[in-house]
């Protein structure tokens, strides 16, 4: 008999393994299916190696059980988990965009584990509307006539076009046919909505007369302006401002829709962010304004629609509104986020996105020094110091703005910057760092002081790691 078969024969049976005391102990707190899956996985791997001839003996029983226990622990961890953003990109789309403010988190918790008046009017004791909870506060903050919230800005755009211009032409400048990433392209959304795109102008220049020429009283349904949130066209350019478009819309008797992307509410120009604000958009005469909840607004994922009541009402009654409707947790977080804007100074202090953007160079440097000191105390051989860096707003907002920040720069002797970056990602709470000029950088703009201990733990583990020494 060849060695392979001998090895295969020695592999313990799953049923036998499941009688192991340690695994029985696990089953008290873990679903049996998870334990069985883990055991199967480990045994299957041993069998495969044996068949391939890469394993010449079966591991000891204790070693097998130990490995199964390790897998069980792994399987019980959730896939979606918190991590630490050391990239300095405030609205990192891959890392979940906006961190919510405390008030939003508390509101979510309070409605999540109990019943709520989501669609119930407590005063009247009768059915209510889920739109009402956020509509009041959004109207109060933005000054709009009406408001509603859907799943995201992509859904808001789709619903708006469908409700306002189904089967009609919508005129958009060629300079504003944006792609936001992840397959959001204005022409494609337009097609899906049932409205027909009528492009005017050129990539770099569009004039009011272009809209006038494209206008057909029979077939045109709306004018639309899209904020080129994630790029800028510089040089020989001309765009039709929202004000000019509003005037055109009035003349033609057509509604003007403005997809502004980032819903900036507070004036951040003194921090170098000169994005248009929501109130400006209404003042300039847009009939409907659409923006994201989790970009510069700093709230949960959502698409906010504000503007003239007749249009918003039409959207509320549209069948797509049901498909795009938000759940109670989003409504709770959105309402609480807007509440912070009742006092702009509070908003900049309490909404993490705004606070991080507003954070000054000096504060950041002090923060970075504290983190550098902590990390240096854990790896005496490492070169750890504070460096200037440039951070970004991110999330496809303010693409040309570079925020002056401070980063902790780490060089571990014998370990490349890329390797350290990878090891930091492996931590229990992963730390996402940047690599530049052979150094691993942790920008402190996006790291809270309360997270320093986690960063330290990840760094300590990385510095001690066998994998690091093995290279
Ligand atoms: C980001 C953005 C969108 C998409 O918003 P989501 O909330 O991510 O769906 C649409 N239009 C513009 C102009 C944007 O900047």
How would you describe what is shown here?
The protein has 471 residues and is α/β, with parallel strands linked by helices. 44% of the residues lie in helices and 18% in strands. It has 21 helices and 18 strands. A seven-stranded mixed β-sheet has the order 5-13-12-11-10-6-9, sandwiched between helices. A hairpin with a 2-residue loop joins strand 7 and strand 8 (184-185). Helix 7 (132-142) packs parallel to helix 15 (328-340), helix 8 (153-165) crosses helix 9 and helix 16 packs across helix 17 (352-358). It starts with a helix and ends with a helix. The protein binds pyridoxal-5'-phosphate.
Supply the key terms.
single chain, about 475 residues, alpha/beta, 7-stranded mixed sheet, 21 helices, binds pyridoxal-5'-phosphate
């Amino acid at each position: 008999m060849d060695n392979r078969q001998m090895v295969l024969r020695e592999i313990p049976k799953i049923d036998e393994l499941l009688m192991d005391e340690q695994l029985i102990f696990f089953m008290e707190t873990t679903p049996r299916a998870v334990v069985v899956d883990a055991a199967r996985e480990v045994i299957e791997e041993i069998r495969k190696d044996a068949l391939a001839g890469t394993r010449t003996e079966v591991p000891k029983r204790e070693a097998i059980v130990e490995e199964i226990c390790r897998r069980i622990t792994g399987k019980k961890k959730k896939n979606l988990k918190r991590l630490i953003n050391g990239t300095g990109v405030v609205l990192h789309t891959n890392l979940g965009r906006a961190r919510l403010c405390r008030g939003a988190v508390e509101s979510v918790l309070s409605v999540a584990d109990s019943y709520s008046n989501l669609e119930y009017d407590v005063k009247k004791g009768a059915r209510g509307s889920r739109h009402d909870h956020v509509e009041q506060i959004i109207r109060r903050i933005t000054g709009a006539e009406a408001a509603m919230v859907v799943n995201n800005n992509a859904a808001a755009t789709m619903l708006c076009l469908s409700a306002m211009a189904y089967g009609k032409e919508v005129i958009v400048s060629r300079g504003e046919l944006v792609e936001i990433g992840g397959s959001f392209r204005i022409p494609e959304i337009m097609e899906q909505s049932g409205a027909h795109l009528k492009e005017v102008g050129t990539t770099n220049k569009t004039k009011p007369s272009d809209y006038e020429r494209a206008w057909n009283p029979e077939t045109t349904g709306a004018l639309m302006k899209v904020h080129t949130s994630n790029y800028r066209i510089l040089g020989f350019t001309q765009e039709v401002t929202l004000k000019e478009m509003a005037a055109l819309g009035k003349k033609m008797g057509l509604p003007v829709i403005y997809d502004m992307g980032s819903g900036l509410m507070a004036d951040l120009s003194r921090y170098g962010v000169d994005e248009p604000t929501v109130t400006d958009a209404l003042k300039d005469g847009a009939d409907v304004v659409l923006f994201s909840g989790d970009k510069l607004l700093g709230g949960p994922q959502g698409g906010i629609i504000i503007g003239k009541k007749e249009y918003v009402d039409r959207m509320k009654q549209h069948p797509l509104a049901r498909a795009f409707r938000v759940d109670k947790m989003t409504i709770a977080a959105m309402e609480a986020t807007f509440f912070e804007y009742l006092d702009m100074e509070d908003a900049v202090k309490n909404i993490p996105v705004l606070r991080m953007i507003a954070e000054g160079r000096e504060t950041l440097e002090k923060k970075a020094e504290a983190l550098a000191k902590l990390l240096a105390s854990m790896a005496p051989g490492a070169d750890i110091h504070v460096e200037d860096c440039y951070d970004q707003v991110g999330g496809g907002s303010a693409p040309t703005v570079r925020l002056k920040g401070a980063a902790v720069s780490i060089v571990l002797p014998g370990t490349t910057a890329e390797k350290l970056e990878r090891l930091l990602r492996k931590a229990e709470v992963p730390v996402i760092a940047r690599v530049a000029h052979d150094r691993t950088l942790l920008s402190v703009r996006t790291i809270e002081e309360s997270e320093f201990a986690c960063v330290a733990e990840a760094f300590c583990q990385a510095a001690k790691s066998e994998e690091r020494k093995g290279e």
